[in-house]
Amino acid sequence: MEIKPPFVTTPVETVKLLMLALAKHKEGKIVDLGSGDGRIVVELAKKGFVIDGYETNPDLVKRSQERIADLKLEQHAHIFEKDYWNENLSGYTVVYIYGIPQIMGRLEEKIEEELKPDCFVISNVYRLPHWKIKKQLGTLNIYFKT
Fold first, then answer.
1. pLDDT 10s digit of each residue in the chain, 146 long?
2. pTM score, two decimals?
3. Which residues of 34-108 form beta strands (DSSP E)?
4. Four-residue CA torsion sign, 125, 104, 60, 114
5. Angle in degrees, 0-180, between the axes of helices 39-46 and 12-21, rounded to the nearest 10
6. What structural domains does the chain harbor?
7. Distance between CA 56 and CA 68 in Å, rounded?
8. Whole-number Å distance between alpha carbons of 136 and 2
């Protein structure tokens, strides 16, 4: 049985910390795994980041896509109604996840297999079980894949 994290809105303060953590990484492409209402995607796109979001809830996808269109952020932001477990993440330089403990081990394996060296992984609240945290900002755990 597939474990699906519930939709939990990321606090505004955490979004600000995420932007701070990514300040020097505008050249790459970011992915938000389980993008929910698109808050992270929209806020980072407003700051010039190129970011994709994967979300399986069609209502949240529609809401996110409408907001992106209303704000004219289509060149920087995309939301896909897809399950990220079935997507290859190798084209991303930063992965953001606000997951739950039950998926973090499996996610760690997926990242190990698919991400290239020199990529960042940022998890909100919950940790990757075997990776060493490079830095913490509030509830954000920042990892660097070597």
1. 455 666 667 767 777 777 777 776 667 899 999 999 999 999 999 989 999 999 999 999 999 999 999 999 999 999 999 999 999 999 999 999 998 999 999 999 999 999 999 899 999 999 999 999 999 999 999 999 88
2. 0.89
3. 50-55, 77-81, 94-97
4. positive
5. 50
6. 12-145 (3.40.50.150)
7. 17
8. 29
Q: What are phi and psi of 34, to 5 degrees?
A: 80, 65
What residues form DSSP beta bridges with 25?
A: none
Taking 3-state DSSP, the helix, strand and coil percentages for the chain, each rounded to the nearest 5, stand at: 35, 25, 45
Question: Phi and psi (nearest 5°) for 48?
Answer: 95, 0
Tokens of 130: 């075997």
In 3-state terms, what secondary structure has residue 46? helix
